[in-house]
Amino acid sequence: MPKIESPQSLERYREILKSEREKYRATVSVCGGTGCQAHGCEAVYRALEGELSARGMKESIELKLTGCHGFCEIGPLVVIRPQGIFYRQVKPEDVPLIVEKSVLGVEVVDELLYQLPDNGKRMVREEDIPFYGKQTRLLLKDNGSIDPRSIEDYIVQGGYAALAKALFEMDPDGIIDAVDRAGLRGRGGAGFPTARKWRACRAATARDGIKYVLCNADEGDPGAYMDRSLLEGNPHAVLEGMAIGAFAIGACEGYVYVRHEYPLAVINLHRAIEQARGLGLLGKNILGSGFDFDVNVSLGGGAFVCGESTALMASIEGRIGEPRVKHVHTAERGLYNRPTNLNNVETWANVPLIINMGSEQYAMVGTEKSKGTKIFSLVGKIRNTGLVEVPMGITLREIIYDIGGGIPDGGKFKAVQTGGPSGGCIPESLLDTPVDFDSLYEVGSMMGSGGMIVMDETTCMVDIARYFVDFLCGESCGKCVPCREGLKQMLYILEDIAGGRGTMEQLDLLKELAEVVRDTSLCGLGQTAANPVLSTIRYFEDEYVEHIVEGKCRAGVCKPLLTFLIDPEKCTGCLRCRKQCPVGAISGRKKEPHLIDQERCEKCGICLEVCEYGAVVRK
Amino acid sequence: MVRLVIDGQSVEAEEGWTVLEAARHYGVEIPTLCYAEGLSPYSACRLCTVEIISRGRSRLSASCSYPVQEGIEVRTNSQKVRRARKVIIELLLASCPNSRTLQCLASKYGVTRIRFRPEDRGCILCGLCVRMCKEQMQAGAIGFANRGTGREVAVPFHAKSEVCRECGACLYICPVCELPCPGPLQPGQLCNACLDSLQLEAFPCKE
To answer: Is the complex ipTM higher than 0.85?
Structure first.
């Protein structure tokens, strides 16, 4: 395929591709996201491939491995279009039946349909399932229908039309104004107005005429995989957004900084760049407009701190990934000391959407100050684990209960953690908080890049704070004192409290230290590192006090505070716990009540798990 | 010239100065550890933290790298600053309990107890030696290795350096590898010998 040299030829090419696809009677999409890969979607895909070719249907049925569909809990997912039949937990042995009934015929395979948990009703189509019904999937809608390995697939679905429009129908200032009117704010977490960032970088003078646009794909929050899924499932949307941004800013070169732990994202991104270059959608004189722009991929080594803008730039330059002070903004002096604009994956993916939809239409979604949608990875103690895209302003309750299906196994909700290690834990009393940048900040958390971890009463809030501080201790770059030393001392205090050695003075010290770390750290990592501690103290101080004063962990997580006892009334003397105890702490003869030696007990809880008579109690 | 307010005084500073330079020019004292004239500012110890009020918003910032700006107000000794400074000294003393420089700073800025768990590591990672070696001695023999709590100053791969000329400039500039403070006996204790001294400015035990 020769390079596309004008927007007209792009449209012609799109028409050709569309007519080529008319031969297909139906499309079978297998979710190839990381979640479904783990569930074994590759085998399902191969089985479908074999079945379709055995039946001689390869020419009439389109089969593709797409990006993440979102409902990772019940993968592997298979969707048959145009009917829109949605099958879950598909195994290779289900494939002949699916092809027989739903591809050849017009029936559905009942057993593979999603079942409502409360009344067992089976749902045929994706949009009928409550998990999808309450979402507004603007960014993710193509994820389930595009083969990320094929630029043609992206073009058929309207891809690169926004770039053509931006290059030929708009001027750079007009694009920035459009993004401004759309009210787009950075999806990396802090919510800085994107247009303001772009304008500053456009206004900055480059000494040698070179400016950069960067894409931050160094997603590192525990439990978060939004950017990963976007890059894996729809890399061209990110590239198109970057090209539009580069044109608006006046940049000629771009970098995607992506973690090397995301192998599929890296492969798909490289392939997408090659394909876009091949068609002249990246490189010199894009679509004959005279605008040059190319994208490089820079692999991150897995340091959380490299998601910080200046550390990221240092890392691309080949230096230690360490933040520097930002009194001179990166818009003026960033990568290689040249004007640089950095946005997150999801922010870039929003850009083509804004150009295609129009700012006004885009701004209809969301709240007054937070526009558009936000993708969250909904994980933890939640029934419907997965990737959800919701309009800004939806309440946490709607996300957790209507989309997420609530807490599984009859558990009781305790808190939801947003914003990863920089965010905070939000209690049940604040579940009606609207999800937007400012409201989440007000309640002591933050939007973050979109991790949402749901916790139930088996989660100890002291332990959660300890977990995040421990994570940050290892991920801090170690440059500035408050972050490096402060986090370490915070961890010691939290370990003391969780270990039953804490004092009330230590709790006050923890608060004071957390505030100083927040106020004096050099970069965003340190300044927000205290949030998990401050927010858990703010909403769950009683749990801290309980650990210290009563020596009790109500969630049963902090082992040093637990005691395992055997109720002699219930114990039948079956020897089971005695045999299983790894430290030999249980004594007692057959058919006589057993006894746990508290000195030797390691509190592993195995006795509790193996006892069939409910004789072991945890206190 | 840039006009700004430092501790209630209206002053003028030259464009390009940092807040620390301006304050020192007018005799306002701000403690520093990782700062040295002639080396690029590093802003890691955060001891030079001051409160900066700009456009109605107050925030703490390291004065050694903050460029003077028209109309800002700088407070070098507000309650917020004092609290942050004390906690930072305390944190540093927990990692280098017998450093004389740190013990003297503690006395001077009213730190009377260390509430953190002491762990003598003999280095506060201020990076003065690294910058000295690179910027003044043009050698670049040492650098930082590892991250987070495992960070250390090291020669590459802990092997004998081929570029080190053993000039000793790193030792010369190090604020903690000097004779230890004679005061405290156990890590985590404070000397505070000079706390009651009338001549706090002179750091009596340093003579």
So the answer is: yes
